[in-house]
Amino acid sequence: MSDKLIVFDTTLRDGEQSPGASMTKDEKVRIAKLLEKMRVDVIEAGFPIASQGDFEAVQAVANAVKDSTVCGLSRALDKDIDRVGEALKGANSARIHTFIATSPIHMEMKLRMSPDQVVEQAVRAVKRARQHTDNIEFSPEDAGRSELGFLCRVIEKVIDAGATTINIPDTVGYNVPNQFGRLIRNLIERIPNSDKAIFSVHCHNDLGLAVANSLSAVMNGARQVECTINGLGERAGNASLEEIVMAVRTRQDIFDCDTNLDATQIVPASRLVSGITGFPVQPNKAIVGANAFAHESGIHQDGVLKNRETYEIMRAEDVGWSTNRMVLGKHSGRNAFRTRLNELGINFEVEEELNDAFKRFKDLADKKHEIYDDDLQALVTDASVGVENEHVKLIALKVCSETGEIPDASITLSIDGEEKQAHSEGGGPVDATFKAIESIIDTGSELQLYSVNNVTNGTDSQGEVTVRLEKAGRIINGQGADTDIVIASAKAYINAVNKMMAVDDRAHPQL
Ligand code: KIV
Ligand code: ZN
Fold first, then answer.
1. Same domain for 180 and 50?
2. 332 by DSSP, 3-state: which?
3. What would the pLDDT profile of 94-146 be if each residue is shown by its tens digit?
4. Is there a single domain that holds both residue 233 and residue 138?
């Protein structure tokens, strides 16, 4: 029997710390529900002290998720810890994750504390967290650059104080695999009470080594990995969940542990996170990139046709890639629609949501004859789904683009039920459309990112547009999909505006 490797997903916390990747409360809940379905063991939902919005998001995730443990992050301060405790009150299973830096540079320059003071504060924090729950994780921040003897000292004390998981972060992604693996082994061997806690790792990808370091740690005794969908995270990101999980599963001949994960949810989760954050997945990304299972060369194609295992070490369908066959069309009914969604692992809890999605499906089928699985995924991850208080709605859009002429757009929006019209010119049809929207709403925001991706192949494909707006330090991503990319762009812009208008004071989650 191999050991269990605990999967701790921090997409909603460290992932959200990627500049531009902020998520609304509803988006966090949608992602958390999919992580739960994937059987992720622990979901780190946010940093409740960072803002009222982050507090509410953690609270909403804690209330929505039943099968995974929900975790909130706190500095080693009473007020942070109590705030996490409060946010997690509704959780079936709650964990408080508290951290304090232990590297000489962080202690001296950032905290301006002596090593003794750090130990004292770490112990105090763990004891405080124990007043809320027995499930306590402690992280010595920047452990990857901390002195081994000091790490052993702090960790022994926090385990005595009640920490049940000890997470070793390579905060700045400085370590290399052999060294990091050795660090984990040394800690487990030297700390007298190490058997009273699970050892975890949290690796950043500054040198492109986050997954390799995590795997080396697992080979040396770590039994929890902290990771994110698509490797999202601070700077160069965190270790990617899909790569770690599939490496361990594919190489059971060398790992003496495995996760409990339902890997078929990996691709849907990757898409959902990419759609919500507006961070595209590079085509050659392992596991979830569009080309991850594509065979271009004749020799490879020939080999795979003769025996799949000649060039494939995993099956695409095992990580959630669909065969992408034509599934539905304009004459398909509601039952066929629901059945295919269920086969793709998408279930609506509320009948009204299914009805909305079915209506969008019918609209799409009018424009596009063949509806593929990817179209259905785009349809249900359409960001306008689930936006509460949709103040602004697109009623009509007409654009004119002609060689030698200045493009222009005429738009009709409904603002809280009242119709307003505007006309603008622009450098192109999308520019004219955004200017027309702004001339009605005047958001005062700045466009930071505009990107379009095709959902399927062919010129009748839906275009999936992401728009990132920034206003007074707040970053909001909007998405829209349509076979007409100018309409998709208008939908994405309006989606971002609606999110901006929603009552939510969330600033960037980093303190
Ligand atoms: O990278 C890091 O050190 C962290 C800690 C809070 C675990 O994210
Ligand atoms: Zn981190």
1. yes
2. coil
3. 999 999 999 999 999 999 999 999 999 999 999 999 999 999 999 999 999 99
4. yes
Which token pair is 421? Answer: 């019209």
pTM (2 d.p.): 0.86
Residues 126 and 247 both lie in one domain:
yes
Residues 434 and 484 in one domain: yes
Indicate whether 509 belongs to any domain.
no
- Residue with token string 């005062």: 444
- Domain identity same for 44 and 176: yes
- Residue 239 CA to ligand 2 centre (angstroms): 10
| Residues 387-425 as b or e (16 or more Cβ within 10 Å = b) | beebbbbbeebebeeeeeeebbbbbbbeeeeeeeebebe
Number of domains in the chain: 4
CA of 212 to the centre of ligand 1 (A): 18
Q: Which is the closest atom of ligand 1 to the Cα of 226?
A: 7
Task: Please identify, by atom number, the ligand 1 atom nearest to the C-alpha of residue 143.
Answer: 3
392: CA distance to ligand 1 center in Å?
38
- Structural domain including 265 reads 6-277
Q: Which residues line ligand 1 (CB under 6 A)?
A: 14, 73, 99, 139, 141, 167, 169, 171, 202, 204
Mutate to test the pocket of ligand 1, among 8, 14, 75 (most ligand atoms within 8 A of CB): 14
Q: Clarify whether residues 374 and 296 are in a common domain.
A: no
What's the angle, vertex CA 398, arms to CA 390 and CA 401, rounded to 5? 130
Residue 284 in any domain: the answer is no
